[in-house]
Amino acid sequence: MLVEAGLLQVGDDRGLRFSSQLLRQTCYDANPGPERAHLHLRCAKALEEVRGSDTAAILTHYLETGERVAQLEYLQRRAEELHGAHDQDGRRTCLEQVLEIVGNSPPKEWTEQERGSVFCKALLGLAELSFLQQEHERVLTLAKQACSEARRLEHLEPFLDGLHFLGLALHARRERGAAETHLRKAMEVARRRGDQVRYLRGLQALGSVFQETDRGEEALALAGELVTATEQRVRASGHNMRGTVLLKLERGKEAEHDFRTALELSRASKEVILEGKALGNLAALLCREGKYAEAAGCAEQALALTRRTGDRLGEAKQTFNLAAITELRGSLREARQLFQASYELARAIRFREGSAMSAAALDRLPVG
Asked: Which residues touch 40 (CB under 8 Å, ≥6 apart)?
C-alpha cells in the first residue's frame, strides 16, 4: 500500500526506502529519542544479517544507540577499511571517536585491560596519522600517552610502538640523539622477543637518522640487513635506503639498480607509499644524469601516488622535485606554477624547510 501510494520505493536490492529525504526526515523526527535508538538498533542488527560487510552503514546505526561494544567494534573495523583505502581524514575521525568513547564512557562489561588495549591502539593510530601530517608535537603527546598507558597495564607491544613514534617525532624535530636512543631501545626489546616486524621497522627508522647525520656506512649496513628480509615491502625499503646512500656517495649505477629493484618489489607487494619513494628517488638520479624527460615521468607518477594516498608531505616534496626538473627542461612558467603549488602545500602542513626552498626558487624565477 505504501509503495502504491508513492511513499516508499523498492530498490535494486529489493529493499524499501522512502521516496524522498523530506519524507524520511519527517518520519524520523516524529519518533521520540528512545524509540529512535531502538529503531537504529533493529536496523543495525538487520544489516549485520543481510549486509554484514557494509561496515559504514552498520556503524551509522550503532552510533545512534547506546551499544558501546558494538560502536567500538565497528569504529575500529571502519578505521581499518579507511586505512586500506588511504582515506586518512575518515580514519582520523573514527579513531578520535574511539578515544572519546573509551576515555569518557567505556563499556561497563570491559576489563581495564580491554579498555587499555583499545585506547592504546587508537592513540598509536592517531600518532601515525599526525606524523604523516607533520604534526610532530601531537605525535609526541600521543606517543607519550600510549607509552604511559601501556606501561601501567604492562602491555609491551603498544609500549614499543609508542617508543617508535617518539623516536620518529624526535628525529623530525632534529633531536637525533634522543631519537636514536628511543629507536634502539624499542629495537633491542623487539630483537630479544623475536619480534621481527618491529625490529625491521626500527632498522628502517634508524637508517633515516643515520642518512641525515652523515653516517652513510652505518646506514648501508642497516640497509644490507633489510634487503635480505623475507617480506618484499621490507626489502623494497632497504633498497630505497641503500640507493639513497649510494647516490650521496656518487655511486650512481649501483643506486639506480637499488631504486629500480625497490620499485619492482613495492609494485609486487602493492605498497603504494614505497612505490612513490622509489619513483621519487629514481627521478632524482635520472635528473642528475641529465635524463630530464624520463625523470619528469617518474616524478609525475610519484606525485600522483602521494595524492592518491593523502600523503601531503610527500605531495609537497614531489611537487617541488617536479618543479625543479621542469625548470631544468626550460619550461619556466610551468616550473613557477609548480614551485608556487609546492610552497602553498608546505606552508599548509608547516613544512618549513620545504616552504623556504620553494620560496627561494620563486624568487629566482621570472614572473610571467
From this structure: 61, 62, 64, 65
| Separation of CA 20 from chain center | 38
Q: How far apart are CA 137 and CA 151, in angstroms?
A: 21
Res 19: pLDDT = 66
- Reduced to 3 states (helix: H, G, I; strand: E, B; else coil), residue 16 is strand
Boundary of a domain, candidates 109, 129, 164: 109
What is the Cα–Cα distance from 191 to 20, expressed in whole angstroms? Answer: 60
- In 90-202, DSSP assigns E strands to none
Cα(216)–Cα(246) distance, integer angstroms: 8
The verdict on 116 and 99 lying in the same domain is: no
Look at the block and give the residue holding cell 614499543. 160
Range of the domain at 142: 111-202
Domain boundary residue, one of 158, 178, 202: 202
Tell me the three cell numbers of residue 67.
Answer: 551499544
- Per residue in 89-110, pLDDT tens? 899 999 999 999 998 888 888 8
> Is 325:296 a contact under the CB 8 Å cutoff?
yes
Higher pLDDT, 26 or 125: 125
Specify if 196 maps to a domain.
Answer: yes
